[in-house]
Amino acid sequence: DIARIPATTSAERRFRELLFDNQRLEVEEESELLERTILNKDEKAKEKLIHSYFRLIASMAMARCRKYAGYKDFWDLFNEGVIGLYDAIRTFDMQFLEKGLFSHAMTHIRSAIQRSCCNRYYTNPVRVPVNICAKIRQIEGVTQELSKDGVQPTPEEIADYISIKIDTVLMLLD
Fold this sequence. Notes:
mainly alpha, about 70% helix
């Protein structure tokens, strides 16, 4: 899938090269790079660590790109994922070194990509919190489900269906 996405700039072409050249690191090597990155502020180690996670970021960005087709470009989502990985490395606690960075990084990458999609999907000049975006998506899904017979559901029906207050539904529909 990723190989079919056009790389229009030299930076995108470089990302693609790095994506296919880098493999996941062994646990020992990842631990060593994390120590060098966090304790010694070694930028080369940080760069190698980030490049090793490019495939994970690409797969998460591709999944979101399909879901929000037309709103976000793959490369934008990929860059947001890289920013999430930087954040994961910055906030990584060395006492969990034996468990590795993977699960910590997954959470940060996913939330960075999701936040970006949420902010672009709802083209509001004010940043909408992720939990509100989730409620809006839930209401949209329920609206589609309840309107299968061609009749638009009322806000009361939507509120009853998903067990939230009618005021909340009215606020989110506006």
